[in-house]
User: Which sequence fits this backbone?
C-alpha cells in the first residue's frame, strides 16, 4: 500500500465521476442533469482533470461530445478507480452500521462450486463470524476482468492464455476434460475414449468462457475433425441435448460432480489428454485489508493441504 502522506493529484472522486458520466452520456446537458450540477461546474471539473493529467480528454461540438484518443485510453482506469472507491466506501458504511468486519467478495466459475460449498463458507464463518461474504459466479473471462478492475477480492477460475500478467496465480488442481453421452451410445462402454472417436459426431459445448477455446485449440493443433454443432449457455441445456440424442457434450470433469442421471454417463477423454488448471487468483497490485488477506491465506493453505493429501 502507498504511504498515505504521499502527494496525490489534485483531483477529487467527484471530478472523476463527472468525466466517466460524460463519457457514457456524450452530452453536457444530460450529464449535468444526471449529476445535479450546473454545466459551468461540469466544464470547470473537466478542465481541471485535463490540466492535472496534461491532455485533452473530450472533443465538444454543438451537437455531440466525443472522446479523444487519450480520453478513451483513460476511461477504463477512471471507471476502475470509481468502482474500487465505491466498494471501499460501502464496506466502511457496513462496518459503521453493523459493527461487522466488512465484506469479502469471492468470484468463481460455476463448475468449481463443488470445491467451495459447503466447506469454504463454513470455514470462513468459523474464523470470521462478523464478515459478510458474497459469492459471484460468472464466466472465466468475466472473472478475470472483475479481478483486474478490483470488483472482487479474489476468485477461483481456470488458467489459459487470456489470464493477464497483473494477476497473482496459485494453481490448485487439474480438471480433465470428459465427454457426456447416453448410456446406450456404442462408445459409452469405454472408460477412456480417444478424441478421434468423436470425429463426425455432433458436439455440444458452452458458448461462453474458455472451454470452447481450449477444445478448438486442441482440435486445430492435433488436426481433429471435431464439430461444435451446439453452443449453449446452461448446463441443463447441454445435458438435454445429450438426452435427446442430438449430441455428445464435452466439458471439464468438475461440471459432472453432481450429475445423477440414469440416461447419461461420463467418459474420460485421452489421446491427447486435455485438462484445465483450476487456480486461486487475485490482483497482484490491488491493496487489501488485513482481514481480506487473512481470509485469502486461510483458504489458500486449506487447498494446498488438500493437494498434498
Assistant:
Amino acid at each position: 500500500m502507498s504511504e498515505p502522506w504521499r502527494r496525490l493529484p489534485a483531483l477529487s472522486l467527484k471530478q472523476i465521476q463527472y468525466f466517466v458520466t460524460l463519457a457514457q452520456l456524450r452530452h453536457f446537458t444530460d450529464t449535468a442533469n444526471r449529476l445535479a450540477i450546473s454545466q459551468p461546474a461540469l466544464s470547470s471539473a473537466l478542465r481541471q482533470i485535463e490540466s492535472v493529467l496534461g491532455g485533452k480528454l473530450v472533443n465538444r461540438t454543438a451537437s455531440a461530445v466525443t472522446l479523444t484518443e487519450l480520453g478513451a485510453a483513460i476511461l477504463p482506469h477512471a471507471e476502475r478507480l470509481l468502482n474500487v472507491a465505491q466498494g471501499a466506501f460501502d464496506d466502511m458504511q457496513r462496518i459503521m452500521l453493523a459493527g461487522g468486519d466488512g465484506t469479502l467478495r469471492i468470484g468463481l466459475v460455476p463448475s468449481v462450486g463443488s470445491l467451495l460449498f459447503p466447506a469454504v463458507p463454513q470455514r470462513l464463518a468459523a474464523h470470521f463470524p462478523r464478515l459478510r461474504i458474497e459469492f459471484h459466479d460468472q464466466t472465466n473471462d468475466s472473472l478475470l476482468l472483475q479481478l483486474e478492475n478490483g470488483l472482487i477480492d479474489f476468485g477461483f477460475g481456470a488458467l489459459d492464455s487470456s489470464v493477464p500478467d497483473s494477476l497473482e496465480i496459485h494453481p490448485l488442481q487439474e480438471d480433465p476434460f470428459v465427454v457426456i453421452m447416453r448410456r446406450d451410445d456404442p462408445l459409452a462402454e469405454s472408460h477412456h475414449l480417444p478424441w478421434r472417436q468423436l470425429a463426425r459426431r455432433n458436439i455440444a459445448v458452452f458458448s461462453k468462457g474458455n472451454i470452447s477455446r481450449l477444445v478448438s485449440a486442441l482440435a486445430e493443433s492435433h488436426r481433429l475433425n471435431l464439430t461444435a454443432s451446439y453452443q449453449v449457455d446452461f448446463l441443463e441445456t447441454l445435458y438435454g441435448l445429450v438426452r435427446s440424442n442430438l449430441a455428445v457434450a464435452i466439458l471439464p470433469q468438475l461440471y459432472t460432480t453432481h450429475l445423477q442421471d440414469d440416461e447419461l454417463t461420463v467418459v474420460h477423454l485421452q489421446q491427447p489428454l486435455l485438462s484445465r488448471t483450476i487456480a486461486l487468483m487475485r490482483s497482484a497490485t490491488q491493496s487489501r485489508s488485513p482481514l481480506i488477506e487473512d481470509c485469502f491465506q486461510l483458504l489458500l493453505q486449506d487447498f494446498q493441504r488438500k493437494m498434498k493429501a
Notes: The two ends are 35 Å apart (CA to CA).
